[in-house]
Amino acid sequence: MNSISDTTFIVLDVETTGLSAVHDRITEIGMVKIQKGKIISEFSTLVNPQMYISSYITSLTGITNEMVYDKPTFDKVVPILKDFAFGSDNVVLGGHNVSFDYKFLNNSLQRCGEMPVDTPTICTGRLARRLNKNLRSKSLYSLSQHYQIKVERRHRALDDATATAKILLRFIDTLLNEYEYESIDEILSFQYKKIFEAEKIPPNIKRIKQQLKDIPFNSGVYFMKDRHDKIIYVGKAKNLNSRVRSYFYHNVSHTPKIKKMLREVQKVNYEITGSELSALILESRLIKSLKPPYNSATKRYSNFPFIKIDVQNEYPKAEKTFEVKLDGGRYYGPFRSSYTVNSLLDRIYKGFFLRKCDDKKLTPSVKHSTCMYHEFKQCNAPCNFSEPHPAYRAEVNRVITFLESEASPGALQMLEKKMFEYSEQLQFEEASILRDRIEDLKKVMANMILTSAEINLKNYIVKCPETGEENSGELFFISGGKLVKTFYVSPALQDSTQGKEILNELIKNIYFRGNLFGSVLYNNYGKYNKEELDSMKLISNWIYQNNSPSTFMKITPNVTVKDINDFIFSCLRDTK
Hints:
Blueprint: E1 8-16, E2 26-35, E3 38-46, H1 55-61, H2 65-68, H3 74-86, E4 91-95, H4 98-111, E5 121-123, H5 124-131, H6 140-146, H7 157-177, H8 184-190, H9 203-211, E6 220-225, E7 231-237, H10 240-245, H11 256-264, E8 267-272, H12 276-290, E9 306-309, E10 318-321, E11 330-332, H13 338-351, H14 372-375, H15 389-404, H16 411-424, H17 428-446, E12 460-465, E13 473-479, E14 482-489, H18 491-494, H19 497-511, H20 530-546, E15 552-554, H21 561-574
Helix pairs in contact: 5-7, 12-20, 16-17
């Protein structure tokens, strides 16, 4: 049973000369690749269909006979298409009414003498009919408008595939967090579930539905209780009213687990928090302490890869990891794509002389024989003192510079140079893939939060908007890498001189030595307990998912209280 995080989704859209997969041909292909909850790359090309495009199709798609005249025929596109879409394990092909695109793809492959693909498919149209029952139209454009997804060019393959991919990500998030699905098999079977179920509404559900109108629209945590007043489920919500109501709509296709829980629920309580992020942290703590029977053993969060250099060891090496530990190592990430991590590590392995052996800690000895990496001139063998320790640490520092520097010989410049080379050689697909990796690396470089060896020197402020009250939000003050204070800023506080003075004093006490332009205070050293570490992981994940200039501010020695106030209040005014 494959997990959702291990599945690669290829969202496909084709434009064609007509509706028959047998008699008509493809004029354009668009594909979007999704891994670990993120769009990581895209591919598109016009295709010469070797047949006439009617004026009706041109008016619908904007694709003319002239546009495809000098484009590759489908057989020329096949190698790139197969490499992009089917070069990974555990691939699921997605699309809106995906059977149409799937038939055209396989018929086109067979005409070229290729084997048809035999991958599972997931249809956003089918999912929409089960997850958006109250939406009148389930068309791609109705769903795009509903989710406020902008489609630049309707009926163009890449634009439609991108919109479909974004809708699919929303549906997967719903199935993960609201239906608590854990495997790709559960999601694939969900799209074929009966839409309407003629079940009698149980008395407990009728009674609870009468109470729902009093639940506020704020962020918070909700508690499902049984007839013994025991908490059997804890959940978090950006909007408590909307989230709790979603359980009690009649004929909703709940999972068997949720249906069983709802038969036991007799009461729903809630606790309002200052923001969605506070709700996320509180939910995690409550699940760990209360262990409600209907909560999963562990809360699932997106699993993004990091590059780690274990500088706390005498002879560090570079490796990929999916977890940040407070072990003194230097971490870079989280990256959206394992491909970015793999390509950077490949460059490090080939261009630098760090050890690649499996030993966690290296104990050099003159008795050690050299390994194949030394024979291939990829390591200078510090294991038997062929390379002295100072020279090895200097090589480690060169790797750190490579990952952190935007100038030569940095990774960013290396990728940009290669991208320009591909563009000049008209290898636009390869250039597009590198462009995505560059954006991934830029985001990591701009947002190194829990990724430094000196993690306990991290000082920053996170601002999370509140759903239930406009122009308000909660501030998270992190000092020395720990969450030390949360503070709710309401519209009333913004208009209050006394409220602003309280906030100013709080800022100075946390980050400054009691005066306006004092040096930043790094006084929060020490070990992390499990609760502190869990909170910081949740905050780091939330920042990565929601990072923008209006949500996050680093506190450096040259930052003043005025700078911090400007950030806080400009963010609040920007909140909608």
